[in-house]
Amino acid sequence: MALQAGALVPRTFSVPKEGKSSASFKDSTLFGVSLLDHVKADFSSSALRCKREFNQRTGAVRAQTTATATPAISRSAIDGKKTLRKGSVIITGASSGLGLATAKALAETGKWHVIMACRDFLKAERAAKSAGMSKENYTIMHIDLASLDSVRQFVDSFERSGRPLDVLVCNAAVYQPTAKEPSFTAEGFELSVGTNHLGHFLLSRLLLDGLKQSDYPSKRLIIVGSITGNTNTLAGNVPPKANLGDLRGLAGGLNGMNSCAMIDGGEFDGAKAYKDSKVCNMLTMQEFHRRFHEETGITFASLYPGCIATTGLFREHIPLFRLLFPPFQKYITKGFVSEGEAGKRLAQVVSDPSLTKSGVYWSWNKDSASFENQLSPEASDKEKARKIWELSEKLVGLA
Ligand code: LMG
Ligand code: NDP
Ligand code: PMR
């Protein structure tokens, strides 16, 4: 199955998975670098050679192949032109909505290999097929962000695959607007903050070294944020509003036993927990930027992709809400965007050569032009960002 195959492909396979040639290379220019047909052939034959070796000797080969990794840009001996290999991007929650639309948009360019990091393998496989993604452009790997063990296992299998990591997109999320009682992750954290923030926090911390090692011209770590976490907007003022308070609930472990399930220590509210988790996402991106941008050159970014009112995010909302929300956003707030359009926006943040600025929260105006948006006071509070970082490190076992 693609899961196993993908998880074990050695690094020289970072070009098309089955060593097939790719239409994808034909027209390609990215970051001003052109791709050449003869390089395509080189990649394919070395990929096939590697695959044969790999089949014969399994594990031992992995270490060796990483040592002969294909550089991101190589110079052709014949005419001195620069060539760029396919980018390798991990997208969490790529089995539906924004994640799937982004995976599709990137795969279609032929310049990216998408690692779809999903909790439901079959759902992801069906989704990729029905989106028309071709097999050589994606690999599905299992991750359940509501389990730190699963996050660690994912990182382990990804590293053993020998693939380079050029961009990581933390996109998956859960939203429980109608829950009366909190539910919890495997380690006992309230589910929305546990999945949307803590799972991604551990994942991105563990993958940071891999990103650092990437020789791709622009390496990026993107964490999806939202307008509803920002109280400097109308949408962010619809109750219940995001508010992390003094972080006493987070400090206590969000477990609802010896502490409260909410970050601010208040009563459980599923909609608020989601909005709080988005504030954590946006603060985490900025803290990454402050700690690592200069040293690593990695671009850290967040975004509000628009209101994608039709996605699975609202699956737990009441049917009346799901019926009225899309027309409300389309005709009244005019904040609605289709999954396809939102996917193109996030794909821009992944690969557009003009969006390399780090520490930015991107949004789009009516004409779908990107701009650097202003975060709310809480979502740009440096002191809170630092505290959340430190508390989260303890909760996920990094400190
Ligand atoms: C909660 O309800 C739910 O209880 C919770 O379970 C969860 O779903 C949560 O955020 C998610 O919402 C929120 C509830 C209360 O809103 C509603 O859903 C009720 C809708 C009431 C309808 C009002 C009429 C609008 C006409 C709509 C036409 C029909 C389409 C409906 C589609 C449904 C989509 C919602 O919300 C309220 O209390 C109502 C009003 C809140 C408005 C808040 C605006 C505050 C503005 C303050 C100014 C801020 C200044 C900022 C300045 C920034 C400027 C850039
Ligand atoms: P979807 O529900 O369509 O997508 C969420 C994805 O996250 C799904 O693939 C889901 O998997 C996955 N997921 C949920 N829990 C886990 C888990 N424990 N482990 C692994 N994967 C998990 O919603 P959207 O596409 O709307 O949401 C994507 C992102 O966009 C979120 O970060 C959300 O906050 C953000 N966003 C959405 C907006 C909107 O209007 N929809 C607006 C602003 C931001 P599965 O398919 O198996 O359920
Ligand atoms: Mg909101 C003015 C514009 C605007 C925008 C862009 C959004 C986006 N919303 C806006 C306004 C309003 N919403 C108003 C005036 C209301 C009261 C009628 C309203 C209500 C509302 C509800 C009940 N909106 C919602 C909900 C949800 O359950 C969604 C939510 O908060 O999920 C956390 C939601 C959203 N509105 C948005 C966006 C993008 C969402 C969803 C998701 C998210 O932030 O990820």
CATH architecture: 3-Layer(aba) Sandwich
CATH class: Alpha Beta
Topology-level CATH name = Rossmann fold
Number of strands: 12
Distance between the termini: 37 Å
Describe the structure.
By secondary structure, this protein is of the alpha/beta class. Helix content is 42%, strand content 13%. The protein has a single domain, classed as NAD(P)-binding Rossmann-like Domain (Rossmann fold), CATH 3.40.50.720. The chain has 12 helices and 12 strands. The strands form 3 sheets. It has an 8-stranded mixed sheet with strand order 7-6-5-8-9-10-11-12, with helices on both faces. The model is unreliable at 1-68 (pLDDT under 50). It binds 1,2-distearoyl-monogalactosyl-diglyceride, NADPH dihydro-nicotinamide-adenine-dinucleotide phosphate and Protochlorophyllide. Residues 175, 177, 226-228, 234-235, 238, 271, 274-275, 307, 333, 335 line the site of Protochlorophyllide.
SSE blueprint:
Layout: H1 2-7, E1 29-30, E2 33-34, H2 37-57, H3 59-67, E3 73-75, E4 82-84, E5 87-92, H4 97-109, E6 112-118, H5 121-130, E7 138-142, H6 148-161, E8 167-170, H7 191-213, E9 220-224, H8 248-251, H9 270-296, E10 299-303, H10 319-333, H11 339-351, E11 360-364, E12 370-372, H12 382-395
Parallel strand pairs: 5-6, 5-8, 6-7, 8-9, 9-10, 10-11
Antiparallel strand pairs: 1-2, 3-4, 11-12
Bound molecules: 1,2-distearoyl-monogalactosyl-diglyceride, NADPH dihydro-nicotinamide-adenine-dinucleotide phosphate (NDP) and Protochlorophyllide.
The site of NADPH dihydro-nicotinamide-adenine-dinucleotide phosphate (NDP) has 31 residues, from helix 4.
